Amino acid sequence: MQNVSGTFAPILPDSIKAAWPYRPRYAQVNGYRMHYIDEGEGDPVVLLHGNPTWGYLYREFIKPLTAAGYRVIVPDMIGFGLSEKPSREHAHSLDGHIANLVALLRGLDLKRITLVCHDWGGPTGLGFALSNLERMHALVIMSTWAWALPPSEFHTRMFPWRTMHAPLVGPYLLGRHAALVKRGIYLSVVDRARFCRETQHAYEFVLPDPDDRLLTWAWPRWIPIDDTARALKRFEWLEDNLRSCTLPTLLVWGQQDDTFDPQIFTRRFKELMPHAEGPHFVTGRHFLQEDSGPEIAQRIVDFLEANR
Amino acid sequence: MQATVKSISDEALEHKRRVLVLSEDRLAHYPEFREFFIRKFSLDTVGFSTPGYVRGTSGGDYEFIFIGRSGQRFPSGVEIYALVEALEPMDATAVDHDLWDILRWIFTEIGGDWSVKTLEATGRLYLIPAAIRRGESEHHDF
Fold first, then answer.
1. Do residue A172 and residue B99 have CB atoms under 8 angstroms apart?
2. How far apart are the C-alpha atoms of B67 and B70, rounded to whole Å?
3. pLDDT digits (tens, 9 = 90+) for B53-93
4. Measured between alpha carbons, how far is B79 from B22 in angstroms, rounded to an integer?
5. Which domains does chain A have, with CATH numbers?
6. Number of residue pairs across A and B with CB atoms under 8 Å?
7. B28-52, pLDDT tens digit by residue?
8. In the structure, what pLDDT confidence band is assigned to residue B133 with cuts at 50, 70 and 90?
9. Are A54 and A206 in contact (CB under 8 A)?
10. How many CB atoms lie under 10 A from the CB of residue A267?
11. What's residue A92's pLDDT?
12. Which of A22, A165, A185, B38 places its Cα 20 to 30 Å from the Cα of B77?
C-alpha cells in the first residue's frame, strides 16, 4: 500500500470538526485514494460504514473505544466521504470494494482485527474477514446481510426501492437530487428532528454534487433481488464461509429497522453463526448508530473485554 | 394525467449547444427499459447512426445518445442532452422538470410494474420539486 501525503479533503466546517476532530490520512488502494482515520493504540477495531454515509457515522464510537485501549481505524469507502469518488459506475464492484479494504488493512499490517460492519460495510467487511482469517479477532454485525437470496422484503418493493433505482430514475433521484443523502438517512433514523438539527449536514457536505453521489445509486443495484444478480456468486461464497466462521461475533440491530427486518435478519445470522452473541436490540432504524451510538460503543467494549 | 413529452423526428441544431443533464451507464438493469428505447427510437434498425430526440413539456428539446459496450446488448446506456441556445444559460429548473416528465413518459410507455403513480409517490417521498409541483397541480385539478 502506498501512503499518500498532501491535503485532498475539503476543509471541514467547524460544525463537523467539533464531532470529527481526527487527523485525515490517505492511502492509495487499487489506484484510488482512500481516506481513513487511525486513532489510539492497542488491538485494532475497524469501523465500516455503508451507503450513503462515511466514517462520521461512527463519531460516537471512537473515544469510548480508544479510551478502552483499542486502536480505531475508520476508512471511507472509495466513492464516499473524503475518499476519491470515481465518476463511472463501472469503477465499482463488490469484489473491488473488498479488495480496497484488503489493500488498506494489509497495508497497515493489522492483526487481531475486530471488524464492525454496517450496511455495505457488511458484505465488504465480511469479504475481507473471510479471506484474511489469520488477521481477524472478532466481528460486530449491524443492519446488513451476507447471502445471495432471499433479499429483504424492502428491497423487493416497487415503492420506493425498485422504482428509485430504475434506469435513469436512479441518477435523477439520487444523483441530481441527493435523495438518499438528503432524505433517505432521515427516513431511517428514529429521532429525525435531532438528526436534521445536528447531523444531516455532515453527510450532505461530503457529497455536494451529482457526480459525487454516483455510488449512492450504483450500490443498490448490486443488492441481489433475483438469481441474475451480478454478485450472486460472491454472496453465496460469503454465506458458505460464514457457516464455518468461528470468530467471536456480536449482533446488534435497531429494533425499528425497516430496511433489514430485525427479527428476520438476526435469525438468519444466528442460523449461519449459532455462536454469535445477541442479537442486542437498540433504539434505531437502519442507521442505528445515529440513535444509539454511545450504547452500541459500550456494548462493543464489553464484548471485546469478554473476548480478549 | 398523461405525460406530455413527445418524441420528435428531427431538430435543427444550428446555434444550439448540448448540455449533458442525465446519464445512465446501465440501461439493462431492468431490461424493459432498454427494450423501450429500442422500440421508441427504432434502434434495431438505426443503431448508432442517429440520436433520438424528444420535446419536453416546457418546449425544450432533448437529444438521447445511446451507448454501446463490448459484450453487452445495445444500447447499454444512454445520455440525455438538453439542446439550448449556444451562448445562453440553461433554465435549470425547466430542464429538471422536463427530465421528470421524461421519466413519467418512459414509465407510461413501459407500463406493467412501472407505474407513473408509483414514480410520483417515490418522487414525493424524496421531496423532488417536480414531483411535488405536479402533485400540487393535480390536487388543484380535482
1. yes
2. 10
3. 999 999 999 999 999 999 999 999 999 999 999 999 999 99
4. 6
5. 2-149+231-306 (3.40.50.1820)
6. 80
7. 888 999 999 999 999 999 888 899 9
8. confident
9. yes
10. 12
11. 96
12. A185
Return the pLDDT at B140: 36
Contact B22 A172 (CB under 8 A): yes
* Predicted pLDDT of residue B11: 56
Is-contact A46 A40, C-beta < 8 A?
no
Q: Between the CA of residue B92 and those of A42, B82, B84, B136, what are the distances in Å?
A: 53, 10, 11, 20
A167:B122 CB<8 A: no
pLDDT at residue A250, as a whole number: 98
pLDDT exceeds 90 at position B136: no
Minimal Cα–Cα distance from A284 to chain B, Å?
20
Residue type, position A284, single letter: G
Look at residue B86 and give its three-state secondary structure. coil
| Contact flag A164-B126 (C-beta cutoff 8 Å) | yes
Number of alpha carbons in the 13 Å side-chain half-sphere of residue A37: 24
Instruction: Please report where in the chains the cell 458458505 appears, as a residue.
Output: A240
Q: How confident is the model at residue A175 (pLDDT cuts 50, 70, 90)?
A: very high
Encode burial over B17-26: b for 16+ CB neighbours within 10 A, e otherwise.
ebbebbbbbb
Question: Cell triple for residue A120?
Answer: 455495505
* DSSP H or E segment with residue B95: helix B92-110
Q: Which residue of A has its CA nearest to B128?
A: A177
Q: Which run of H or E residues covers position A75?
A: strand A70-75
CA separation for the pair A33, A3 (Å, rounded): 9
Model confidence at B139: pLDDT above 70: no
The three cell numbers of residue A10 are: 475539503
Contact A284, A190 (CB under 8 A): yes
**What is the structure's pLDDT at A56?**
98
